C-alpha cells in the first residue's frame, strides 16, 4: 500500500492548489481525480465559459464597429468554432495542471476515490493511505424536482457549453452568475433569451442598484426578464419545450428549443465514503472548523463541499490555509466577509462586503457614494458607459464596508477594494491615493469622493 503525508481527493481549483502548496511545504502528496485534472472549473466552468464570453464580446464589437468609426462589411459567427475554441482553451489549461503536478512531484492517481476508515482511500480497488486526507470533490448543477434535466431539452451548464447546434430560443431558469453569463452569451450569438427568476431581482445576491442596472442593460440587449416568477411545469413531448411559468399576474406558457436550468449547485458528497468514516454532514455540506478539520481526525474538507462561498478562489484559499496549518505555520482563519464575487456577463459585475441594504439592516450609520461610468473619460472612449461603482463606508469610523461595481472590466478592478478592506483603509485614505487617468479605476476614487461630498466630475 502506497503511503503519503497528504492525499487530496479531487483536482479542481481547490484540490490542485492544495496539492501544490502541500508539496511546496515538503509533504509527500498525491491527488485523486476521476475525470480531468482541473475539475469543473478548468474543464466545464470558470475557464471555458470565459472563452465563450470572449467570443461573444468580439462578435458584439464587430456588430458595433460603426460606433468606432470602422467599416466591417462581411462577418458572421461560426457557433461550432466558438465552442471548439472554448474546449481548446480548457484542454490547454488541463494540460497545464498536468505539468504543475509533475513539476511539484505530486502523484496523480486516476480513478474514483472513496474514503475508508483509518485514513485510507480506495481508488478503483487499490488502497492508498495518508497521514491526512483532504476532500475537495466540488459540486455540480442542482436539479429542481419540477425541472428534471434530460441533457437535451432541459440542460445544465455543462451541456450549455457544448451544444451541437445553437438554439433559436432559450429559457434560462435562475439569474445567478451561471444564468446571466449564459444568457448574455447566447443572446449575443443571436438566440432569443428569456430569464425566469424566482426572486424579485436578477443577480439577487448583489446590491439592488446593481441588479436594476443589469436588468436595464439586458433588456436593452433584447433579453426578456421575468422576476418573481417560477417554472411550475415543463413539457418536452413536442419538438421543443414548453414551460409553464407562474407569475403574480397568473400563468404563462413559454416555448423554446431548450431550457437551461441555472438554479444553483449540489455538492459532490454522495458515494465518497463519508458515512463509512463517520464524517458529519449538514444537509449537503461537510462540517469543518476554521482550519477545515472534520469531526474525524486526519480528514479535512475544502471548497464547495463546505459551508463557505462556492467560488474557485475561496476553495484555493481554503486549501492553502489548511495545509499551512498542517505544516505548523501560524495562520489566521479566512475572512468570509471579504471575499470578492465576480460575474462575467456584459456588463460585468464585481462586489465585496456589505450591500447598502445589509449595512442598514445592521443599524450602521453609513455614507454611500456612487460614480457612473457615463462620467468616465476612459469608459466614454471605450464605448462602454453602462454601469457604475458604488461604495459604502461606516460614517463614524470611515471603515470601507462594501464596494459594488457593474461595467466593463470591473472584475479586474474589485481587488482594490478587497485589499483596501483587508488593510483596514478608510475613505479618506482612498481619496488621497492617486489613481491613474484615464482609467476605469478612477471611478473607485470618484465614488469615494461622492460619499464624502468631494466628488469632482459629477
UniProtKB/TrEMBL annotation:
Note on cofactor: Binds 1 FAD per subunit.
GO molecular function, one term: dihydrolipoyl dehydrogenase (NADH) activity
Domain Pyridine nucleotide-disulphide oxidoreductase dimerisation: 339-447
Organism: Thalassobellus suaedae
Cofactor: FAD
Protein name: Dihydrolipoyl dehydrogenase
Catalytic activity: N(6)-[(R)-dihydrolipoyl]-L-lysyl-[protein] + NAD(+) = N(6)-[(R)-lipoyl]-L-lysyl-[protein] + NADH + H(+)
Record family assignment: Belongs to the class-I pyridine nucleotide-disulfide oxidoreductase family.
Keyword Cytoplasm: yes
Keywords: Cytoplasm, Disulfide bond, FAD, Flavoprotein, NAD, Oxidoreductase, Redox-active center
Enzyme Commission number(s): 1.8.1.4
Note: The active site is a redox-active disulfide bond.
Amino acid at each position: 500500500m502506497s503511503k503519503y503525508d497528504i492525499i487530496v481527493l479531487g483536482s479542481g481549483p481547490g484540490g490542485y492548489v492544495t496539492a501544490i502548496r502541500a508539496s511546496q511545504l515538503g509533504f509527500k502528496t498525491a491527488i485523486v481525480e476521476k475525470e480531468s485534472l482541473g475539475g469543473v472549473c478548468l474543464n466545464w466552468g470558470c475557464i471555458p465559459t470565459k472563452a465563450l464570453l470572449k467570443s461573444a464580446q468580439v462578435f458584439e464589437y464587430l456588430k458595433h464597429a460603426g460606433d468606432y468609426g470602422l467599416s466591417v462589411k462581411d462577418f458572421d459567427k461560426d457557433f461550432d468554432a466558438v465552442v471548439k475554441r472554448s474546449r481548446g482553451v480548457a484542454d490547454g489549461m488541463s494540460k497545464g495542471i498536468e505539468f504543475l503536478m509533475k513539476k511539484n512531484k505530486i502523484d496523480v492517481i486516476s480513478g474514483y476515490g472513496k474514503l475508508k476508515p483509518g485514513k485510507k482511500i480506495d481508488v478503483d480497488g487499490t488502497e492508498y493511505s495518508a497521514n491526512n486526507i483532504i476532500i475537495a470533490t466540488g459540486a455540480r448543477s442542482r436539479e429542481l424536482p419540477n425541472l428534471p434535466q434530460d441533457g437535451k431539452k432541459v440542460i445544465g451548464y455543462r451541456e450549455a457549453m457544448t451544444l451541437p447546434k445553437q438554439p433559436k430560443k432559450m429559457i434560462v431558469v435562475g439569474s445567478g452568475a451561471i444564468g446571466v453569463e449564459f444568457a448574455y452569451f447566447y443572446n449575443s450569438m443571436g438566440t432569443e433569451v428569456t430569464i425566469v427568476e424566482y426572486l424579485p431581482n436578477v443577480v439577487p445576491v448583489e446590491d439592488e442598484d446593481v441588479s436594476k442596472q443589469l436588468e436595464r442593460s439586458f433588456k436593452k440587449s433584447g433579453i426578456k426578464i421575468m422576476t418573481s416568477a417560477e417554472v411550475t411545469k415543463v413539457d418536452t413531448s413536442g419538438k421543443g419545450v414548453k414551460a409553464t411559468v407562474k407569475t403574480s399576474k397568473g400563468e404563462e406558457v413559454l416555448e423554446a428549443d431548450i431550457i437551461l436550468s441555472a438554479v444553483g449547485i449540489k455538492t459532490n458528497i454522495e458515494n465518497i465514503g463519508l458515512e463509512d468514516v463517520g464524517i458529519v454532514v449538514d444537509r449537503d455540506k461537510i462540517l469543518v472548523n476554521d482550519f477545515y478539520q472534520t469531526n474525524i481526525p486526519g480528514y479535512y474538507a475544502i471548497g464547495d463541499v463546505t459551508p463557505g462561498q462556492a467560488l474557485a478562489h475561496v476553495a484555493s484559499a481554503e486549501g492553502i490555509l489548511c495545509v499551512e496549518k498542517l505544516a505548523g505555520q501560524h495562520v489566521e482563519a479566512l475572512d468570509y466577509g471579504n471575499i470578492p464575487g465576480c460575474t462575467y456577463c456584459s456588463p460585468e459585475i464585481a462586489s465585496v462586503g456589505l450591500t447598502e441594504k445589509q449595512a442598514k439592516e445592521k443599524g450602521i450609520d453609513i455614507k454611500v457614494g456612487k460614480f457612473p461610468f457615463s462620467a468616465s473619460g476612459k469608459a466614454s472612449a471605450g464605448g462602454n458607459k453602462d454601469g457604475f461603482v458604488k461604495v459604502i463606508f461606516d460614517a463614524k469610523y470611515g471603515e470601507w464596508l462594501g464596494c459594488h461595481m457593474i461595467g466593463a472590466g470591473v472584475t479586474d478592478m474589485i481587488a482594490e477594494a478587497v485589499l483596501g478592506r483587508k488593510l483596514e483603509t478608510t475613505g479618506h485614505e482612498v481619496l488621497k491615493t492617486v489613481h491613474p487617468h484615464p482609467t476605469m479605476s478612477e471611478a473607485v476614487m470618484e465614488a469615494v469622493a461622492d460619499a464624502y461630498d468631494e466628488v469632482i466630475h459629477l
